[in-house]
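Session log. Operator J.P. requested a structure for one protein chain; no other inputs attached. Running the standard single-chain path with token output.
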Amino acid sequence: KYNENYSRLYDDPTDPRYVHPDSLNVSGYHYRVAGTNLNRFARNTKSIIAKWDITSQIDKHNLPKVGIEVQADDLSYENITLVPAKTALGREIVPFIPSIDGVESTNHDLFQRTPFKVSAYAQDKIELDNMIINIGLRLETFDPNGKTPVDPSDPDIYNPFKLEHRYHDLNGDGQIGLAEEVASNAITVAERETYWYKKASRKTSLSPRLGIAYPITDKGIIRFSYGIFEQIPEYSQLYQGDQYKLVSAQQGVQGPYGNNDLKPQRSTIYEIGLQQQMTDNIAVDVTGFYRDIRDWISSSQPIPTFLAGLSYSQRINRDFANVRGITLSVKRRWAQNFSFGIDYTFQVADGTNSTPDQEFYAQQNGQEPTKTLAPLSWDQTHTLNGNIFIGNEQQGISIIAAVSSGQPYTPTRLTGSNTGKNVMAGLVQNSGRKPYIARFDVEAFKNFSFSGVDVQLFVRAFNVFDRKNPINVFGDTGLADYTLQQVEISGYDKGWFDLPTNFSEPRSVYLGTKISL
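Structure written below.
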């Protein structure tokens, strides 16, 4: 709402305070330098958790443990995209909420959800003369307290497409005639709620766990472990967009929308390892691992609606991955005023999609569904870490170094002129590798005592050598600071391509004091 004086005040086109951001996006090679952030977001979670555990050494061989945990959550969520009001001259001024209560608007999501979960476990540690066995079983049940549309072709309760969902069939002939398409005969939202949804099912699972440690010498142990681990999907994947507010005037695939009926994500993990003590202070550990991951959250193929040309995508359990590798570590415990550790990991992580949205955006670009495994975006083939501490309880210095190979990225090839660049599709997903990353951190401390008060002075320096570690790269070059576009684009500020987000944090140094009374 605005009065005439307010309207005249902001009709001045030189005043940038209430310019819609979209009107400033004059080119793909310019930063937005003004405008109004039209998004308003609020989320609140309240949790009540009750836990009970009991452990008892019933005899010299068995240490059983049982427990139960109950958790009730209360989620409140609101997301508003404000719509700029306009004066008679078309000047955009103060934004306003697009509807009276916001519920029916595609620009306003407002809901409250109350998921409930219970987990219980029983395990036993069995200590035999030459072997230690850990065996257990975990039961988990999750009730999303949610609902899904009965008719997937007409999911939006606030804006139904089918006439039988909009108006009452007064004469009972199974069709809605012109005489019945009147406002006084419209079906209310409250009436639709009585038949529109079906309840999402409760999810229950059993997860076994097994671990065996067997000494092969007086200083060496071989171990094996197996376990199934269930993970409830993030609440945002379950509930965000679960009202399926479709824009009827917009063709194509909309979404992806939350799905209250998602199953837990399931990981099966195998590990085998050898721990060997080399000297009184030095130990070596070698561990091989394999993880099979199923029911990862992804985006469904387009679900057609009653309106021709309009479809939508929702969250589904579709993706899978496997991770395998080996870790070698050497550790020296603290003695003679110093300790150190070094570990190396070789890992291969393959999967169908790295994020839940990847499949959806591939659909938007006209690509086929992912059918083969590819390196995941967080795959890191080689990782080497080292640390050393010199000192004692009163003073000391720690040095930490880490070097890792680059993570995958999907190469791109640009076609067209510099004013109409397009990304060529069909290049192999995550077939390129980013440059390696190296980091060097140092921490030193000194303790003092004054009249019974303990004081510690410390300095912490991260990324000491101020290395520009590339975490994102341009797809056409594989580099974080160079793209072929900046050579071909003329008349624009080349600084647009200098993206700070392509690099890790620069060097930072902290000086501090801890006081203990």
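Operator note: Residues 189 and 511 are 60 Å apart (CA to CA).
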